[in-house]
């Protein structure tokens, strides 16, 4: 048989429990069959009992055992009634608990040991919060902390004026406050996590401490101002080169940031910074040259960035650097450029220019750099272009100058687009500052490169040089001048076999075609076609019966280039009495060619012909040489086969050459480094009374000797004729443009006509030149002036 027990709960047992535990406990009673009590029975009901009279009066229940034969079908039940009276707190519970907590708070403020254990204090706060006493507890703690903070702030008044000592005192006060509030928050953590969180208008204990500290610090402006001025003093010392306690500054600035008072420091700090760098910038710019001033500015910027990283708030970075840039760079941007840019460019100081570019770019100083860059290019470039003494070297000087500028643009100025455009515009201005001459010299430079084949340099380097020359060509306004000189030089290279590479010739023409179009290179390409056709014609001539009949009479060979008049430069007729053998060759070729091409006319250009002569100076092998000479030189030398000495007048009568051309030819044979003839009397110039003899003592280690280099040289007269032909072509183009415009418009004022012509014409021209062509067309009755308005022109159909 199981035992049934009875539990009894009294009020005394309830209050003996620790405060904070639940007043009710779940009771479990068992019947003899382990069934739970029926809690629906009220306390006034009586329980059905046996004859012993068991009741719920609170007495101990005796243990009973069923007897043998006793009926077990009806188990006995027991009911316990629970009293539902709410427990009451002692009247002094809140005061007693706060007294204990207050003592611990005061001990923390005095930095003394706390008597109670942390667990006991935490439990006390928990009991107050559980019994809805959190608001009073928070208010009492706030008042207590505020009184303490007020006294701490007041203690800072009247501290020593020494900035470092005072700031260290403030830092110690702040650190003590933080430590104390941290400890207090640990004690009152339950309050912070229950009442504070559940109350929307109540701030956390830590924030409450910050508010109190800020409130009393604001009420003591003397202390606050002293803190700010002290920190500014330390920063000024650091900027002046002294060592300061950066940790102290960092802690105090973080204190102001947490107290939301950083803006008061920042405003004063930025004003102080602006004043400091305004004065320092002016002083340093007077004492230092530009490269050293830029180094100084760069160092100051690094120092301020370092200062931001160590103790200033990150929000100060932008306004601080802005103040620095404004006072050290923006205020002196034009002075920096005026004093130092040209010197740095001239000395090619890439690092300093890079520093100047990067610094001025911070203050939108690119326009200053652009103006100075353009002015430097124009000034230096015009000096190169206008230097008559340099001559052909001018092109190489321009290439070197352009290469230096490209290097500076890439390495110092980061290939800036604006500066690239400035370089292009400036170069176009300077290269056209001297009309026509740069175009002529560039054409001659190209001729020199294509004739020499870039001696001493690789094929790739030679190609690179030509690429760079074409860049200069792009800047030319008078491209027709370049075309005229280039065509004349190309003709000589092709006809005299002086071209180093036909592939290089065709490559540069292809590039010119890409630059200027097919109309620009049409004649140049026609010259190459004539050279190819001439090879086919000479092959056919060699196999013809005319040539075979001639070979029985003469032993020499003849090679002819048949040129189309429209493609090649115009050459003036050159009179010359040819030797009989050469005349036979000419007559035979004319007979062959005209039989194939009826209706054509051949004109022999003696000035471009060249010959190969076999000369015997002495009977031995060393005395036999092969001379490469012009046709003029050959005609003179062949005269000495019949006479050892000839006078100037005899030679002139025999060859029938132009007097000036004859003197140049004799000078090249008798007065140059290679003396095939001896002149008497000796001298550099050829006079009428001079006589010439064959130089039988001539010696040379070379078997083939070039004497015809005179053909490649251009006289000033030839250059003038080429230039004059360009001007003549320009007049035709101007006339055609005027007629084309007037034919379309019928009537136009002088100003509008000039404006239209400037848009159409691709070469430089002045308004007076255009006016002359307009007057010429009026005289030739292409145009007429309006009778009512003389400044208006009308087209005459």
Give a description of the structure:
- The relative contact order is 0.03.
- This protein has 797 residues and is mainly alpha-helical.
- The protein contains 31 helices and nine strands.
- It starts with 10 loop residues before the first helix and ends with a strand.
- α4 (134-155) packs parallel to α8 and α21 packs parallel to α23 (518-542).
- The longest helix has 30 residues, at 716-745.
- Helix content is 59%, strand content 5%.
Q: What's the count of strands?
A: 9
Strand order of the largest sheet: 1-2-6
Contiguous low-pLDDT stretches (5 residues minimum) are 1-71
β-sheet strand percentage = under 5%
What is the SS-derived class?
A: mainly alpha
Shape estimate: elongated
Largest sheet: 3 strands, mixed
The first-to-last residue Cα distance is 147 Å
- Helix count, DSSP H or I runs of 4 or more residues: 31
Give Rg in angstroms.
56 Å
């Amino acid at each position: 048989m199981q035992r049934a027990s009875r539990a009894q709960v009294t009020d005394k047992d309830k209050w003996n429990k620790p405060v904070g535990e639940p007043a009710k406990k779940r009771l479990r009673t068992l019947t003899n069959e382990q069934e739970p009590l029926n809690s629906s029975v009220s306390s006034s009901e009586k329980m059905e009992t046996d004859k012993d009279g068991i009741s719920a009066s609170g007495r101990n229940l005796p243990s009973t055992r069923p007897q043998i034969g006793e009926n077990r079908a009806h188990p006995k039940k027991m009911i316990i009634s629970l009293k539902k009276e709410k427990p009451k707190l002692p009247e002094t519970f809140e005061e007693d608990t706060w007294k204990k907590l207050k003592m611990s708070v005061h001990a923390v403020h005095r930095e003394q040991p706390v008597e109670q254990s942390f667990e006991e204090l935490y439990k006390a706060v928990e009991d107050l919060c559980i019994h809805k006493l959190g608001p009073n507890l928070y208010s009492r703690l706030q008042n207590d902390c505020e009184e303490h903070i007020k006294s701490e702030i007041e203690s800072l008044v009247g501290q020593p004026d020494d900035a470092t000592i005072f700031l260290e005192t403030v830092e110690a006060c702040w650190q003590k406050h933080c430590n104390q509030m941290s400890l207090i928050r640990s004690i009152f953590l339950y309050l912070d996590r229950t009442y504070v969180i559940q109350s929307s208008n109540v701030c956390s204990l830590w924030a409450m401490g910050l508010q109190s500290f800020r409130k009393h610090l604001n009420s003591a402006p003397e202390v606050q101002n002293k803190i700010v001025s002290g920190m500014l003093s330390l920063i000024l010392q650091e900027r002046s080169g002294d060592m300061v306690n950066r940790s102290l500054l960092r802690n105090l600035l973080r204190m102001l940031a947490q107290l939301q008072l950083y803006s008061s420091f920042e405003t004063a700090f930025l004003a102080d910074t602006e004043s400091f760098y305004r004065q320092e910038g002016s002083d340093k710019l007077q004492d230092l040259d530009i490269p050293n001033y830029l180094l100084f500015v760069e160092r100051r910027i690094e120092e301020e960035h370092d200062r931001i990283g160590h103790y200033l708030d990150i929000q100060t970075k932008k306004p601080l650097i802005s103040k620095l840039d404004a006072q050290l760079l923006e205020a002196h941007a034009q002075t920096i450029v005026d004093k130092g840019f040209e010197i740095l460019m001239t000395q090619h100081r890439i690092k300093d220019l890079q520093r100047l570019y990067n610094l001025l770019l911070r203050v939108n100083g690119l326009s200053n750099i652009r103006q100075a860059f353009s002015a430097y290019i124009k000034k230096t470039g015009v000096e190169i272009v206008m230097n008559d003494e340099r001559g052909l070297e001018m092109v190489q000087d321009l290439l070197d100058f352009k290469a230096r500028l490209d290097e500076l643009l890439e390495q110092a100025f980061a290939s800036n687009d604006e500066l690239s455009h400035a370089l292009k515009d400036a170069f176009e201005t300077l290269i056209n500052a001297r009309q026509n001459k740069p175009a002529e010299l560039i054409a001659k430079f190209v001729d020199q490169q294509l004739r020499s084949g870039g001696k001493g340099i690789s094929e790739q380097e030679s190609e690179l040089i030509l690429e760079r020359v074409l860049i200069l060509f792009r800047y030319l306004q008078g491209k027709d001048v370049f075309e005229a000189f280039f065509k004349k030089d190309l003709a000589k290279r092709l006809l005299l076999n002086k071209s180093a590479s036909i592939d290089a010739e065709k490559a540069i023409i292809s590039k010119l075609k890409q630059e200027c179009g097919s109309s620009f290179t049409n004649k140049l390409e026609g010259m190459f076609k004539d050279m190819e056709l001439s090879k086919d014609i000479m092959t056919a001539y060699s196999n013809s019966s005319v040539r075979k009949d001639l070979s029985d009479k003469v032993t020499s060979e003849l090679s002819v280039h048949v040129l189309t008049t429209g493609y090649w430069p115009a050459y003036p007729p050159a009179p010359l009495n040819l030797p009989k053998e050469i005349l036979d060759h000419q007559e035979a070729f004319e007979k062959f060619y005209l039989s194939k091409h009826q209706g054509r006319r051949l004109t022999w250009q003696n000035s471009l012909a060249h010959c190969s002569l076999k000369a015997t100076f002495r009977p031995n092998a060393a005395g036999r040489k092969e001379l490469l000479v012009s046709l003029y030189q050959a005609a003179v030398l062949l005269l000495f086969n019949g006479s050892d000495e000839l006078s100037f007048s005899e030679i002139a009568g025999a060859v029938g050459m132009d007097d000036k051309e004859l003197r140049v030819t004799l000078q090249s044979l008798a007065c140059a480094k290679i003396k095939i003839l001896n002149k008497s009397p000796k001298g550099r110039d050829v006079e009428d009374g001079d006589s010439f003899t064959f130089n039988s003592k001539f010696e040379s280690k070379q078997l083939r000797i070039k004497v015809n280099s005179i053909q490649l040289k251009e006289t000033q007269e030839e250059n003038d004729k080429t230039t004059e032909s360009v001007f003549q072509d320009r007049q035709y183009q101007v006339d055609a443009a005027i007629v084309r415009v007037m034919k379309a418009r019928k009537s136009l004022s002088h100003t509008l006509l000039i404006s239209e012509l400037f848009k159409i014409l691709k070469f430089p021209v002045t308004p007076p030149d255009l006016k002359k062509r307009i007057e010429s067309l009026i005289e030739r009755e292409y145009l007429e002036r309006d009778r009512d308005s003389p400044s208006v022109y009308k087209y005459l159909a």
